[in-house]
Amino acid sequence: MARRFDCRRVKLHHSYTISELSALIGAHKHTIGRWIAAGLKTTDAKRPLLIHGADFRAFMKAREPMKQRCQPGEFYCLGCRAPKRPALDMADYRPRTALRGLLSGICPACGRMIYRATTLAKLDQMRGGLDVAFQTAEQRLDDSASALLNADFNEVR
Ligand SMILES: [Zn+2]
User: Fold this and answer.
1) Where in the chain is CATH 1.10.10?
2) pTM of the predicted model, to two decimals?
């Protein structure tokens, strides 16, 4: 699964060597090599290989995981790679700040914890009929915060 590289830094009308591209978006050269092997277009026959910005953007866009937008009441499951409604329509809300918090539930398909960050202001429109239990701030904030981080970083490579 692709890490989120900063592809917006790649200009559409500019060509890059692998080294330049690597430095620009923070991807290892080997990673770019794998993309080329996987079909990223390069300028042909010339050395060094150049990658056109527009080709690169198109390639990365095509690779983006199908992150369907979660509907209200759905959280994105990294295991299933799909939005899922938590099992039993139950979710916990844990505040992280006064205004923001993290909804968590259990994916009914794979049993993983699934999360969705939200704000109190958006909670009503986001809960989609879920039975949301509010945790108090004292309850193990760290757990949910680190779980969110893990959810974000586990997918690297
Ligand atoms: Zn799942």
Assistant:
1) 7-63
2) 0.48
